[in-house]
Amino acid sequence: MISMFVGRLVLSWQLSFGILVLLYFYSHYFFASGAAHIGAMFTTVLFVASALGTPPYFGAMVLAFLLNLMGGLTHYGIGSAPVFYGANYVPLSKWWGYGFLISVVNIIIWLRVGGIWWKFIGLW
Q1: Distance between CA atoms of residues 76 and 79, nearest Å
Q2: Where does the pLDDT of residue 6 fall: very low under 50, low under 70, confident under 90, or very high at 90 and above?
Q3: What is the largest CA-CA distance in the chain?
Q4: Is-above-0.90 flag for pTM?
Q5: Residue 87's pLDDT is what?
Q6: Which of 63, 36, 48, 50 is nearest to 1 (CA)?
Q7: Please, what is the Cα angle at 109 between 108 and 111, to 5 degrees?
Q8: CB pairs under 8 A, 24+ apart, for 52-58?
Q9: How far apart are CA 18 and CA 115, in angstroms?
Q10: pLDDT tens across 82-105, in order?
């Protein structure tokens, strides 16, 4: 379904992969753990990205890097998060708001600056 939607847009592999990355990253809101998210989506998204022209090694590396950033999105996104949430260090609305804001900053840094660096070293 996702590959048909993105494939019909007739975009370059870079833009197609960008859409997939955002879908992959923000779908973490619907998973109770990182392991569940990885198990359900990593291989599928990598397969779709490769079918749309993304270099497989590059796609796998980007998806793996993003796994490290997803934990801060929600109060249940990573193993230590429920402890902080349960101790009332951060209210739920602030957690989700700050998680989203920081995720935008992280994605810009990792994919823009990192993308330039990865191109320079020949990763894609």
Answers
A1: 7
A2: low
A3: 48
A4: no
A5: 84
A6: 48
A7: 65
A8: 52/3, 52/6, 52/7, 52/13, 52/16, 52/17, 52/20, 53/12, 53/13, 53/16, 54/13, 54/16, 54/17, 55/124, 57/123, 58/118, 58/123, 58/124
A9: 11
A10: 777 788 888 888 888 888 999 999
- What pLDDT, on the 0 to 100 scale, is given for residue 20? 92
Letter for the amino acid at 96? W
pLDDT band at 3 (very low <50, low <70, confident <90, very high): low
In angstroms, the CA 118 to CA 112 distance is 10
Angle at 55 between CA 100 and CA 29, to 5 degrees: 20
Distance in angstroms (rounded) separating the CA atoms of residues 122 and 41: 26
